[in-house]
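To whoever is on call:

I kicked off a structure prediction for a single chain this morning and the downstream step that reads the tokens threw a length-mismatch warning. I double-checked the sequence; it's 456 residues and nothing unusual in it as far as I can see. Pasting both halves so you can look.
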Amino acid sequence: MRWKKEKFFSFIYPLFKEKKVALSLLFLLGVMWTLRDIVTLFALRDLIDAIGRETRSQSALIRFVLIVVSSWGFMELSMRIQGHLALKTFPDIRLFLRRKMIATIQGYSQENYPPFSSGEVTKKVLNVSEGVERIMRSILMTFVPMCSMIIFSQAILWNIEPLLGFFFAAWVVGHFAITWKTLFSSIDKTAAFAKAKSRVEGRIVDMFLNIHTVQSFHRAKYENEYLRSFENKELFSEKQAERYMEKIRLALGLSSISVLVITLFTSFFMLNNGRITIGDMALSVVMLLNITGYMWYLSMECIRSFQEYGLVKESFVTLFQNSHDSTSRTKKLNASKPTLLIQELVHTFKENKSVINILNLRVDPQEKLAITGLSGSGKSTLFNLILGHYQVQAGQIYIGGENVKELSLDSLRNQIAFVPQQPLLFDRSIKENILYGNPEASEEELHKVVEIVGLT
């Protein structure tokens, strides 16, 4: 299965277009509230220098308190606005994607339907919708503020002393180089874990959906052993991913300690040589203490986001590896009493077993036709072709003079009454199940159906 980024981004592009104003505001607010730390550090430097000179230290203290209080107030206001906007934006992103994926899968023919259990399909739909939401939330609520802080800090250190700025820039580049190098291996390991976990969840759902059969055949022990083989693969892939993460954490922690030691010795040397003030040294050290924590957290968040991206990628590819086969169906079936015409119809399954071989058929309005035959002779296949569940391989099917290949699935299926072989019930009330084919039916029509099937 090949990952096509263009297909994925074209799938989610309408979401960015619809939410561009809200996403832009979230970006700007993420930049704005980082100014608190920058302003506070500058005020701290001025306070320390004033105390060191023993001149007007009281007024410097009052100024420091005012700056800190006002900057904290500004930050809190920005964060609360951002939080309110995020609450209105991110859940909509999740719902938008989930609805779009469900609608896309509903449009698949049975031949192109994802070859998984219903539990696995559901899990993968949630993986994509919730994963994209978490990635966007992480970018706007974590990456933007922290990257802004790093950029501002770099500018400040360079202004105080170019050598400090150089050390800081070199460390940032090295830190992210380590992170970037480990990202792709992390994605592969996380995707493997996600796949194994999804398989386990699918097996559990499958077992409980068929619990009556499991109990009737006394196969609980067999099912548990069957599930255990999938659990072992899940456990193995999870441990691999976590061991790799621990190695990354160790490497990033060592790089943070290194830059702190270098900065302390360098700034102390420059202080003794009169190149920086004691306030500059305090600002540099406190800033780097903050930034090392930010950088470590940012690297972990970056890895987690790429892991999330790997999970989204795996789920999206397995769900949408086939093109949406109903997008070209645009015509509507408007005939009130259409004629069904089948010409030279041929259908063969993947194992090259021909179930329908050159079928010609015409059914006029109000004409009744019974199609009989042995099991496997192609009766269900014929109706699946008419309903658009299978793609017509050779020959033509016309309804009301329109080729079913060109008719929209909604328009086509809305004109066909279908009674399946197997009785199927949704987990809803009996009334909702009876009205499923026609939710707009009157109470009188409902009672008539109940009498016909003998439910009274």
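Update from on-call: the warning came from a stale cache, not from the record. Cleared it. Sanity check on the structure: The chain has 13 helices and four strands.
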